[in-house]
Amino acid sequence: MILPIYIYGHPVLRAQNAVVTPDYPNLHELIENMKETMYHTQGIGIAAPQVGVNARIVYIDVDVLAEDFPELKDVRMVLINPKIEVDENASPVTREEGCLSVPGIHENVQRIEKIHLTWQDEQFEQHEKDIEGYLARVVQHECDHLEKTLFVDRISPIRKQIIRSKLNNMMKGKVSCDYNCKVAPIKRRK
Ligand SMILES: [Zn+2]
Predict the structure, then answer these.
(1) Total structural domains within the chain
(2) Domain membership flag for residue 20
(3) Which tens digits make up the pLDDT trace of 121-148?
(4) To the nearest whole percent, how much of the chain has pLDDT over 90?
(5) Distance from CA of residue 133 to its chain's centroid?
(6) Distance 99 CA to ligand 1 centre (A)
(7) Distance 151 CA to ligand 1 centre (A)
(8) Does the residue 187 lie in any domain?
């Protein structure tokens, strides 16, 4: 089932995300719905809070980028309870990012593209891997969602100022995107 994408300003994107245990209700259905939603919206990664569920689950499929990044061919990952250690000795790289929850905005984000990732798969088997390059960026972007952080929190203050009115509009529910989305509930003045 395709789920609506929660948009910048919605409190679910800034709420605590729970650790997922094997008894999590309807876990496999949720993961399938996240996949379906991500393919429908043409994303390359999606985190559970983006579909309104505050749980530590991420799905990534970067195969579509294999033309530019051959190492991404057939790379698909379900990450449950992922943990990232960034290699602080590596130099940061700046690249443009976007996000299904922040439609119409693409901005440069500086990140270190060298991480050690530990996670559980859908069967709760433990994995760990050193990841470099673009995939390390995508993993960090998605795992940021689990820490209530959006890529626009990581852009330069000047760029943030420039896109401020667009972000304010999103918070007020003025957003145009070609998929089903859910904006922040309207705050009524008392
Ligand atoms: Zn995102």
Answers:
(1) 1
(2) yes
(3) 999 999 999 999 999 999 999 999 999 9
(4) 96
(5) 17
(6) 4
(7) 7
(8) no
Q: In terms of residue numbers, what domain contains 68?
A: 5-182
How many Cβ atoms are within 10 Å of 93's Cβ, its own excluded? 15
Q: Is 88 annotated as catalytic?
A: no
Mean pLDDT of the chain: 96
Residue type, 15: A
Please report, as a single letter, which amino acid is at residue 47.
Answer: A
Could you tell me the distance, in angstroms and rounded to a whole number, from the CA of residue 46 to the centre of ligand 1? Answer: 7
| 90 alpha carbon – ligand 1 mean position (Å) | 23
**Set 97, 107, 113, 142: catalytic member:** 142
- Model confidence at 187, pLDDT cuts 50, 70, 90, reads confident
Neighbours of ion ligand 1 (CB under 5 A): 99
Give SS3 for 116: strand
Find the helix or strand (DSSP H, E) in which 21 lies: none
